[in-house]
Structures are given as C-alpha cells and as structure tokens.
Amino acid sequence: MSGTGVGTVPTTEVPQEVSSLLLPLADGQLLVPVETLSEIIALQSPVSAFDAPDWYMGELHWRELRLPLVSFEVMRGNPMPTLRSNCRIAVLSSGNSEGDLPFFAVVLQGTPRLVRVTPEELAGREGECAMGELMHVALSGEAAVIPDLSALEEACLEYRSRR
C-alpha cells in the first residue's frame, strides 16, 4: 500500500475537449454534445396534437416511435418561426434511454455545425433561462444556449399525460 497518498489525482478527469454541435434556431442556437444528436431528418409535417401547448408542434413517426416536435423559439416566448426549405429536424436524445420519452425532435433553421468545446473557449453569459434552457453560454464569443433536456422531456411527458 505504499506510494498511495492523499491528494492523488482522481482517475476521472474532466475532458479537455468535448465534440459538440451548434444547432441553428430562428432566434439563436443550441449547444449540445455530439452524442445528444441521434439524427438529422428532412422537415416534415407533424401529426397535429390536440389541445397542446404552443411550443408542442405535434408528433412525428421516427423508427417505430412517436416523437414530440418542439419549437424552442415558442418555448422561449417568441413567435413560431417560418418553416423554410432549409429547415431540418434534429432528433435529440433526452438522456433518459430507459424512460418514457428517450427522444424528441426540434425544428432547426439550417444545418448543425460541429465545434470543439474547451473550457477556455466556453463562458457563461448573463440572462434569465426560459423554459427548456439550462444555461446561456458564449463559445469563442458566439452566443448559444445549452438546452435542459430533462426539463424538455418532463414538459412533453406532462402534456402527453393530460390527454
């Protein structure tokens, strides 16, 4: 047992770099780790959801699942963005693979961009977090929002349980 002392560096170190994606929205962009994105699919019309909150655009069929399609812009209190030909849908993992809603979909206004995030390049920004937002950040001076995936999952499940 000699050679082990108090103050040794733990084996689980904070990664120095995280491969992430900037997901373009009409009113900004989301920053998510690459593992969060399951697939980018073409824009499609969701099946209408009855008596849904404004941000719940409806449901999509994806790989034998029914996914809620969410508008982040509306969730933040902004108007529904115009859906143009360059819009895509990002299928994101909720981070709860064993839960009732392992995935949901978000409308994007363009193509995601791969970025490498290091602690030096990422800084917190002031700003009140709206529904679905975990943190406002700046990545090399570029504004982005880290989404609160578990809060999104909860909000979608809450709506589904009411109908």
TrEMBL record:
One of its GO terms (biological process) is chemotaxis. InterPro entries: CheW-like_dom_sf (IPR036061), CheW-lke_dom (IPR002545). Residues 17-158 form the CheW-like domain. PROSITE patterns: CHEW. It comes from the Bacteria. This is Chemosensory pili system protein ChpC.
